[in-house]
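Course assignment 3, question 2. Fill in each field.
Student: A.L.
Task: Predict the tertiary structure for the chain below.
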Amino acid sequence: MHQSFQKLTELAKKLREECPWDRKQTIQSFYPFILKEAKEFDEAAKRGDAEGMKDELGDVLWDIFFIAELAEKEGLFRLKDVLDNAHEKYVRRHPHVFKGEPDDEETLHRRWEEIKKEERDGKIKKAQKQKSAETTDR
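Answer field:
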């Protein structure tokens, strides 16, 4: 699987550098494509079309790789950051697997919502601290 990720990463870089259309793209101009591909995946899933789902997931994955390439060129983040963040988030959101918490459905749902709220609150506090620091630096 590592080779497949590497090949797709290299393809995103190559197309970004050598394709005139891809060179012109920005995150803002490109993000509608991921929404379109996600909708097409949804349609294939509703039909129970495994080949269609595989194809559309590939398109969504491509869009993720390409947007990450755009973000890296803008100095925002790298694909590795996206992958690491996703791993940390889903470990954190599954304490019943990683910390031995109860795993009944009601507890799972309640804890999932609590964790998401903690994450949102943490992001808000972090943004407020950054804004405060920027104001102080002026």
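Instructor remarks: The chain has a mean pLDDT of 90. Residues 93-138 form one domain.
Grade: pending
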